[in-house]
Every structure is written in structure tokens, then in C-alpha cells.
Amino acid sequence: xxxxxxxxxxxxxxxxxxxxxxxxxxxxxxxxxxxxxxxxxxxxxxxxxxxxxxxxxxxxxxxxxxxxxxxxxxxxxxxxxxxxxxxxxxxxxxxxxxxxxxxxxxxxxxxxxxxxxxxxxxxxxxxxxxxxxxxxxxxxxxxxxxxxxxxxxxxxxxxxxxxxxxxxxxxxxxxxxxxxxxxxxxxxxxxxxxxxxxxxxxxxxxxxxxxxxxxxxxxxxxxxxxxxxxxxxxxxxxxxxxxxxxxxxxxxxxxxxxxxxxxxxxxxxxxxxxxxxxxxxxxxxxxxxxxxxxxxxxxxxxxxxxxxxxxxxxxxxxxxxxxxxxxxxxxxxxxxxxxxxxxxxxxxxxxxxxxxxxxxxxxxxxxxxxxxxxxxxxxxxxxxxxxxxxxxxxxxxxxxxxxxxxxxxxxxxxxxxxxxxxxx
Length: 424
What we know:
It is found in: Cytoplasm. InterPro entries: P-loop_NTPase. By secondary structure, the chain is an alpha/beta fold. It has helices at residues 3-10, 45-63, 67-70, 106-109, 113-123, 157-160, 182-188, 204-212, 234-243, 252-261, 277-281, 289-294, 297-305, 313-328, 345-357, 377-392, 404-409; strands spanning 11-17, 25-30, 34-38, 81-85, 90-93, 151-155, 262-266, 365-369, 396-400, 412-415. The chain has three domains: 3-93 and 369-380 and 396-423, Rossmann fold (3-Layer(aba) Sandwich), CATH 3.40.50; 106-150 and 268-327, ABC transporter ATPase like fold; 153-266, ABC transporter ATPase domain-like (Helicase, Ruva Protein, domain 3, Orthogonal Bundle). A hairpin with a 7-residue loop joins β1 (11-17) and β2. The longest helix has 19 residues, at 45-63.
């Protein structure tokens, strides 16, 4: 083996890094060890770990993809550094909260939910089917009423309608149906109702058609109404065009309008369990998978330890290890059915740590952003055990950290400074 290949196998070597406030910084980071990056705020810790090492590793992985794939990925420029050798596949475990996905829970984010589904598919009585039959994200397992969300959105007609007004006066109180808009013109030109008549004075069947009709052929529409189109009422149109969109795709005005007229309630069919009747009826020790998922992690550990069945010992062991890890990082109070979007940044980062601990991958570089934030001192020491477990699985662990205990536990400390900014 040549000297260069030996260095690449043992070190991540950074030469003359100038990212942000770094000033020609050169370091060698040992692989398969825990390295702590320390220094005052603004000294360049994050610029070195995230802006240089992680950024360049991500760019190199992206460059390995075919061109048509790269064109669809976010662009990432080359880090401002002369040279980096020995980079590995790198995963950043940061404090950014989970966002955007209403179907994501602590169980799905930590990868414990798939293990629970496997357990119930093996020994749940009566059996609902294979693992997907216990998933609220799969059509075979989700509640048909709420489609696996656990809640239903109802439109408050008292907030949506002003029965004292006509269509021309703005009786439909939502931006898309205000007088002069496209949706308003569809109603007015449908021929279903006199646009000058108050809603309170319309016949019940006419008002029902305006509100609830779906794909209704029109008998005598205005000539301005599109000849090839049937009519959808206000409620179906609101559900299809606005409620089913992710909030980020709505305008501020539309989001404000929905917030005023929509009420969210537990699903009347599954009562928030998110699963269909077959999945809810399958039990282990008298509890459904929804009951298990609703328990705090610390209590669920005891429940799992009480199950004795040689057919599922490997699954039980895997579940126990994940639950132990969640408890070890101070998250024993969480339940697996907790929406991941409600977690703080620190909680989200610790859930991500647990997920990576269960990975079968090795020779990965993990970069953590102050993982001790928000932890009780006792939990900090348990966190260190998990980081050591990652290292001992033949991985490289980089930690941007201020906590003395975490710094003391590192195999190497790289201290940037002595000051911040240009004094770093």
C-alpha cells in the first residue's frame, strides 16, 4: 500500500480551507474515531465540519449520479478548499425539526414502526395480514375515513357562508369565491341560483347543489359557462383544490381563509388510531398496535420485555434496542404515535441518532451538531455511549460541541479560534 492510500484509509485530510471565516485551515481528522470540533461561537467549527467536509462529500456523491439525476438535485458548489482527501459517505445529523409530512411520527422517523408492524403480522391475534396491513400509510391498513391521518377536516358552514348575502354580495367567504373571481363566475353562470337572491331565501335543493354537487350536469347554464364542464359545488372544490394541497403550495390569503373555516377533529371511525378495523382488532397481550404506539417509550419497553415467543425473538430484540436507545437519549417520555413535526430541534436530532444506530451500513461519516443540547447531565453520558456505539460499528463520528463531557469523551479535539470571525 502506498503512503497516499494509507493516509486516505486512515484520515480525512483538509488542506487550506477558506469556507466562510476559515483562514487557510488545514487539519487531519482520523477515521473510525470520535472527533470534537470546539471553539467560541463564530470560530469556524460549523464552517469546517458542515460547510467544508460535509458539503464536499455531498457534492462528490452527487457527481457520481447520471447527468439527468444531477440536473434534478439541488445545486451544490465546490467547497472553498484547496484539497480534501479520504472523504467517505457522509450523513449530517442536525437540529433541524422534521417538517411538512403529516404522516411522519416518532415511530416512522426512528424506524421502530416497521418493526412493530412485523411483530403484529407474526403473532397478532387475529392476524390482519402481512406488515403493510398494520400501516396507516398503506391502503391495506389505513382507516378509510381519514385515509390514515387520524383526523378529519370539517368545513364550518357558519364561518364559510353569510346567509344574509347573495352570491353577488360575497356570501361565500373564501378568497377564491369572492365576487369577480373565476370560482365565483362558475357559480353565477351555472344557472343553479339567482345570484341576487340571499342564500337564506334559496330553496334547500338549490343551496345543497351549490354547496355539495359533484360533477353535476347543468340543465340550463348561462352561455358564458364552459359547455364541456359539469359543476362542482363549493365544498368539493374547497376539499380538492385547497384542503388536499400542502400548506406551502397555498398563498398566505388562502391559508388564512382555511384557518378560519376549517376545523380539525379526531376521526369518528378510528378515533385517531389511523388504522382500519382489521388492524385495530389484532391484539398482542390485549392491546392493538395503536395502543402500543400510544404508550411512552419507557412503558413500551416494559411491555416488549413481557412478550415471550421464540418465533419473533429477533424482532423483539431489535425493537428493544431501539427503545433502549430512545430512552438513553432522554426521550423515554415520547410515544411512537407522536407527530414528528411537533418535536423540537434537539428532540428531532436525537430521534435521527437512534435511526442511524440501527443502520446496517458501516464506514459512514456522521456529523452531529451539538447533540447534547437540551439533555440532562445524566442523559449526556448515555448519549456518549450511543456515539461510541456508532464509532465501534466502524464509523467516523464528528461532533460540533460545547459540552465538556462530550469534548472529554472524544478521541481527538480540534479547537478553532482563539476568537470569532477574523480572529478565528
